[in-house]
Amino acid sequence: GGLDERRLGMSTAGWRLLQRLEVHNADLALAELPERTKANLGAREVGKFKVSLDLLYQAEDWMKGAENKESAAPRMFQLSFSEVPDKEYFMVGKRVVEATKEINTILSELKLTRRRVSMTVEGKLFVSGQFRIRLGQLIVQSKRTSTVVLEVQHLSSPSEESEPFIKELTTFIHGFLSADTINSVPVAFSNFSLPTTSFTPKHRALQYVHLVQQAMSSSKKSQAAAASSNSVGGASSAGHTSMPWSSTGSEEKKR
């Protein structure tokens, strides 16, 4: 019944594919994609999910007054998942580390890091047989973006060999989306000492870090292209909405 489905939805097992969908109208996409998921895959909505991700810098390096603080300070990503409420995940360099929630108390007391950007992905969880489908929206600094996130989990397959099959399944969800709006999030897990024969929350954390890095890069390229176009043609940039990747001074918080 529904309770069993919700429990399965909380499962961390099974290989996952993550896709970043860049759309012009996120509200429309988030209304239509769930309906396609239900109609084409016979999926049932069983709950919600949330991924929280903070981009952190070492506080000491941040306060040195470097001209370009963003590139000068070493970065660390901190993530948490609603399905694993008692854990935190960190990506530092080529390592992904799992810790209990108590780590936040330590970070806060030592004041070693400063939060630069706070992000979440929030959305709905669907169940279709052995598949768990998550559809959500990327929110940056409490502002909704045009990035829709599609995550498909195959419970009965723990290895990356199932990825082509999962990718094929996503075509039944995309519907009206054009191919250039669909961006899979490839991750070379072996470069981070993670196996490709089993999937863990560490794998998922790495996928989401890569997703936001993709989105950040895409946003900066779009802003640069818009600025170049405006400088050449004198066109107004009023219609261009950039992602709020940089926080203001009041939003920067020590951890």
From TrEMBL:
Localization per record: Nucleus
Pfam families: Med20 (PF08612)
Molecular function as annotated in GO: transcription coactivator activity
Low complexity bias spans: 220-239
GO biological process terms on file: regulation of transcription by RNA polymerase II
Entry keyword Cytoplasm: no
Keyword Nucleus recorded: yes
UniProt keywords, alphabetically: Activator, Nucleus, Transcription, Transcription regulation
Ranges where the record places region Disordered: 220-255
GO cellular component labels: mediator complex
Domain of life: Eukaryota
Record note on quaternary structure: Component of the Mediator complex.
Similarity comment: family membership: Belongs to the Mediator complex subunit 20 family.
Protein task: Component of the Mediator complex, a coactivator involved in the regulated transcription of nearly all RNA polymerase II-dependent genes. Mediator functions as a bridge to convey information from gene-specific regulatory proteins to the basal RNA polymerase II transcription machinery. Mediator is recruited to promoters by direct interactions with regulatory proteins and serves as a scaffold for the assembly of a functional preinitiation complex with RNA polymerase II and the general transcription factors.
PANTHER family linked to this entry: MEDIATOR OF RNA POLYMERASE II TRANSCRIPTION SUBUNIT 20, UBIQUITIN SPECIFIC PROTEASE HOMOLOG 49
Protein name according to UniProt: Mediator of RNA polymerase II transcription subunit 20
